[in-house]
Amino acid sequence: xxxxxxxTMLWLTALSLMLTVATASASTARADVQGSSDARAWLDxxxxxxxxxxxxxVLIYGDNQHWETLSITHGVMDGVEYERLYHLxxxxxxxxxxxxxxxxxxxxxxxxxxxxxxxxxxxxxQTSAIDAYYHLSLEPGVRVAGRDTQQIIVSPRDTYRYxxxxxxxxxxxxxxRSDLINQQGNVLERxxxxxxxxxxxxxxxxxxxxxxxxxxxSHLAGHETEAVMTRQNWHLGWLPRGFMGAASQLRQxxxxxxxxGALATLMYTDGLAxxxxxxxDAGEQEPMPVMSQQWGVTGAVVKYLKxxxxxxxxxxxxxxxxxxxxxxxxxVMPQ
Length: 335
Fold this sequence. Notes:
Helix content: 10-25%
Radius of gyration: 20 Å
Number of strands: 19
Oligomer: single chain
Structural class: alpha+beta
Shape: globular
């Protein structure tokens, strides 16, 4: 399993935003169905709980080989949503979110700051058809962090993505445990609360960062992902059904000889799974063979393309099966 990176932490802080939009259209269309008997209504309740409740606790995250422990604090004050994730094991890392302003802090490397929330923009348009690529069902829950839960099974309708088992607090609807599972039903990755407190008042100073970093990068809104690719003369030829742009970033090349200047990072999601595409200037380096690797649930593919403007390195990373990542990577071509 890969180390718990700032990118991963940013996705975790956005989980409530992802699930809010992923269930909004479906639950509106079926508002007459009671939440206790409908998986979509439970997901809608979960997304509201993530955004509206004050809670703090300790998360355990990992697979059978490597585990991380994090603290999470979430609250709403004066109508503004606050959230803080902080590593309790390994190197100090944290994410702090205040409204639509998210900062990922990784001491010794960089800080990534999102001046607007790209995920809330990116999930708006593709989630009404979530049941076209996932099947939702209810199963009995188990106790998690001392609380009774309702289990939701999220099963993919194709082989391009993984499935999920979600355990929601029956009292509040908050997600207390999530298992990511493969086609055989084996657990590939899990996060769950070891302890949690819900509903206790919080203060603003509980969300102050405890670390510092050295680099700030602004991000574009999610609906501009295709515009960024086009502007940089790249084309993404294939994505699994349901995946759409969630966030994008233009980065300035560190190579002063670069002819392209700004390079691209693009994130795509179907509302649950995430895929990131990096386009980097490889300078004068000769193209190398395609490299593929799977770390737990994370697949990564690196390929080199030689164009009239030089050699470029295309990296695709996603928490989807490796063949999916490979097919996406092979579809990235210059226009």
